Amino acid sequence: MTERSTSNHFIFSKASDTSQAREHTNNESETDKYWSQSAPVLPKDPPRYHLTPGFVHAFSGATAGFASGIVTCPLDVIKTKLQAQGGFVPSIRPVGGRAAGASNLHPTPGANYKGLVGTARIIWREDGFIGFYRGLGPIILGYLPTWAVYFTVYERAKKVLKAEESKNPWFTHIISAMIAGGCSTVCTNPIWVIKTRLMSQAHQNTSTHQAPWQYKSTLDAAKTMYRVEGVRAFYSGLAPALLGLSHVAVQFPLYEEFKRIFRESEAWNSNKGEFYNVTGILASSILSKICASSATYPHEVIRTRMQTQQRVNGNGKSANEPFIPRYRGVVHAVKTVYREEGWRAFYAGMGTNMVRAVPASAMTLLTYEFMVKEMGVFIEPGAQ
Question: According to the record, where are the Solcar repeats (predicted)?
């Protein structure tokens, strides 16, 4: 009797355990099925999770510009000093031709900025570490709206022009890039003038050619420029800056084309992770930036020269004398620079600019693409 009871109890316990195991397995399969069907997708109903595509592009562009601006600020300072120093040399009209005049422009060549390393040494000797971040305030203030406006307008223009459906996407990308570049340039030119002024000024006791101003901060520069030179000073160099739209007209169509080439390549389509996507974006941004900078660099020198000239009498001249700017417009600036310094002046600081601009462009575009991808889940379905 006891053995039969024990046996029955064992059989019942075993059946119960089997039943519980089956039930547990079913529950696990149901749970797996539930979670597989309900992937981490944000709910579509609550509007608080929805972002407009315009905000996503603006925020992504601003973040990208902010990150690249901070990283490349020291190189930007060096590049600006190399571009601007020729404009601070006393104007000498050549007697025996351009070459004779140009040879006398730098009476103390050893004290001038020369190359990336030489300029960095002078900055370190005169201003220390902080000298490499002179103008960081305007960079932060400038890159945020610049890229926010640029990428917003650029993506919107592509949609309006329907780049995907266009028979000539190159033309669409060029027009979109120029519209976006024009909008961002007009909106942010005053900030870039202040940045250029701050970066171009040297230490008060420097032996290099001195800028005719000494600003203590971004706010001080803005107040002083407005008080001494008026509102027009903030739009110095706007014309060559707008001519510089040729830069983005070259860079972004090439970037789109290189992206298309890498996207269609075997490496891009391989199932080996996101590494190939990152490689494609980096390669596209680097190649497009090198091509654009090489083709359009002289306009940057002209823009810097016009931004760093005061719109009032300097060098001890009487305020009653009529003000005659050194560079009177883009054409006159080109002629003056060529006559006084030769054609090499149009490429001053180009090597430093490449070292600065190429990684800055790669970081900007990579950050932008990453932010757009990550924030894309927040865009309301069907939003334009």
Answer: 52-160, 168-261, 276-374
Please state the rounded mean pLDDT for residues 267-288.
Answer: 69
Do residues 188 and 147 lie in contact, with contact meaning Cβ atoms separated by under 8 Å? no
Tell me the backbone φ, ψ of residue 51, rounded to 5 degrees.
-120, 150
pTM of the model: 0.66
3-state SS class at 104: coil
pLDDT tens readout for residues 1-32? 444 554 444 444 444 555 554 554 555 455 45
Strand partners, 51: 379
Among the residue ranges 59-73, 119-133, 297-311, the one predicted with the least confidence is 59-73
Report yes or no on 7 lying in a domain.
Answer: no
In a domain, 120, yes or no: yes
Residue 99: inside a domain: yes
CATH of the domain at 242: 1.50.40.10
Structural domain includes residue 317: no
Query: Helix, strand or coil for residue 31?
Result: helix
Which residue range forms the structural domain that includes residue 162? 49-311+324-375
Contact 180, 255 (CB under 8 A): no
Neighbours of 226 (CB within 10 A): 13
Q: Average pLDDT of 248-267?
A: 81
For residue 179, give the H/E element and its range. Answer: helix 169-200
Q: Cα separations (Å) of 370 from 152, 180, 272, 281, 365?
A: 16, 20, 18, 10, 8
